[in-house]
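Q: My labmate handed me this sequence with no annotations at all. I'd like to see what the chain might look like in three dimensions before we decide whether it's worth expressing. Could you predict it?
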Amino acid sequence: MSDTMTKLIMLLGILTFDVVIFLLLRRAFPSLRKSPGTYFDWVYWVLSLIILGCFNFLDWIFLNISAYSDRKMVISFIAIALIMKILAAIYLAQHNLIQTAVLLLKKLKIYKTTEEPSAPAESGISRKQFIYRAALMTTSIPIAVQGFSIINQAYDYRIRREMIVLPNLPKSFHGLRIAQISDIHSGSFNNKTAVRGGVELLLQERPDLIFFTGDLVNRQSDEINEYFDVFDQVKAPLGVYSILGNHDYGDYRSWPTPHAKQVDFKNMVEAHKQLGWQLLRNENHIIKEGGESLAILGVENWGIKRFSKYGKIADAYVGTEQADVRLLLSHDPSHWEAKVLDYTDIDLTFSGHTHGFQFGVEIGDIKWSPSQYLYKQWAGLYQKGSQYIYVNRGYGFIGMPGRVGINPEITIIELQSS
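A: Here is what I predict for the chain of 418 residues:
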């Protein structure tokens, strides 16, 4: 099915969802069926159509609006509006279920109201109002729990495993276990204990090698300061290799002077050193075992449209010509089809950047997120010919302070020779 058809189906699905929510609201609150409710109708449908429009043109908004704050506002508006409607749907469904159950009990004469006394006068409410408010409180509890789970899911780290066979992988590296994390976005964290728990989960896997594929911060280098004692624990026998993401250059805030931005970027580079990670800036590192070699290439950020294009894959490639296998770290997965595939001997690329949009559905073989309308490779493993790319869903979050259906990820990839 084409992306256009998939998007059309999703738009129709959202519109149908809007209609159902609208009808349930009018049923649950009789006042909305009266003349003052006309204002509600207008507001509801104007906002709903704006969301549909933003969703339809999401790829254009994301790739062409240059101001970071404007993009964040639009995307946050879409995400928050959809989440609120989902929560409203859960509440209204439970509310109507309780009403239906009460009516059924009345018909079965299990629940009787004709012979029961009314509520005391001093209470100021009738029995019917009391029952309604009790039902309201009862149905509100799961909604509060659901809202909390959306925030909590931002720290619900999941291990995802892949085994990749590379025909040219030397026997010395057969069974090599690589861990990947990406998009830490330390400026968004507010639960250090949970973040530390994710790192402990990573270390329990005992990987041979660890890759970090960019976006250590949101806007400036000092955001990582509070988390140095967490991420400096990320170690592996064959080393930790890192690259920069689009958020790591200080491009998303105003600086008093160009020099101030340069100083901040210098601090960013220094932060990787303090963490004990080997930062690859359009360069490579070759690991040798028993006369056989594996090259790790790392490029700076390279993205389509408005995203920065600091990456120089040609520079990173120099010196790896004799390596038996090549692994590339490149933050933005759009780089893969645009440039990387031209280098047919780059076997496997590691990327991040998309976060899976922090919103979507992944149940069995069903996999959907608005992110797929922006990136062909948006989460998980993809293959073209003999070349692979793995897109990590991100360790942290940005914009929306939570995740819905797309958990933060720690990837474990095992390489095998044929």
